[in-house]
Every structure is written in C-alpha cells, then in structure tokens.
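Exercise 7.
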Amino acid sequence: MDLIIIDGCDASGKDTHAYKIKDMFERMDKKVEIRSHPEGDNLFGRIAKDALLKDGSAVNKLKASIFYALDVFRSLKKYYDEDEVDVLILVRYLMGTAYLPDPLCGISYEVFRKILPTSEHMFFLDVNPEEALKRLNKREDREIFENFRDISRVRNKVFSIIDSDWHVIDTNKPIDETYKDIKKILEEK
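Solution. The predicted structure, written as tokens, is:
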C-alpha cells in the first residue's frame, strides 16, 4: 500500500488536495482511502472535533490534541495493514504536534516520527497566515486555533521541526497550480 501524508496549517488546502490526489489514483483503478483527522466516524475524532469548536481554553486545546492523536492511531490500526486499500492518504498526521505547547511540540514530533509510519510522499502545504485568514473568513465554523496568532505560531513551530523528508508546497497560489506541484512529485516514483 502506498502511504501519502498531507499536513499543513489551517486553510492550506489539505482536504482539497487529498481529494484531487484520490481522484488521480482512482483514475488508475486504485482503491484509495482518505483519513482526514479528526474523523467523525469514531469517538476519538468526535471528541477532538468537539473540543476544537469550543472556546480556546487550555483544557479544550489539550483535549483536542490528545483525542486527535488517538484518532490518528485508530486510523493506522484500521487501514495500514488492509490489503484492499492501494493508497492511504492521511490528512493532518504528524504536524498536529505543532499545536502542542513548547517543549512538547518538538519532543512529540520526534517520538511520533520514529514510531509512526512515514512515506517518501509527505507533503506540508504552506500558506501564509494572511491568506489563511482570508480563506477562513469564508467558513461558518471556526476552530480554536483558527486565528492569526495561532496560525503564525503553529507555522513557525512547524518550520522549526520539519526535516528534509517533507515536500513543502506553496499553497498561496491557485489550487490547480499547487496541485501540479504535488502531482509532479507523485509521478516521479
């Protein structure tokens, strides 16, 4: 099974590009599964999402982070060894650690990076905070981290922990241009 990881800050186009990648592989007659965390099909994901939509208290941020991680583990357990899936796309995977307070952020990233499966196709979709806020202002529901301060802080943390195994993709440009960059990397294999 091919594993593709799509991470990025809020409003960077993670789900949009995951579905474009899914369409590409399905046109090749591949069976594709997307897990976009937090998922609503299990208790861990529902608790994480509920906490994300509440006030920005430390308790809700911690609750969102813990249950988000449990949701990721659940997805791996459910799909990773499944023979019926050719391509597994995990959205919001390792970089969720950047939402944790310092120094947990870097430590958690290193631990998860060592124990969780990774791929040659790990994409970090980068959007500047100003563009992210423009996109977020078009949404009805806002999560607790979806504000200029948190987006900037998380983006800075990501760039302090990210390593050379990640493909950093500029998503400040139009969707089709961004997708061409991703598709080119996927077709290199």
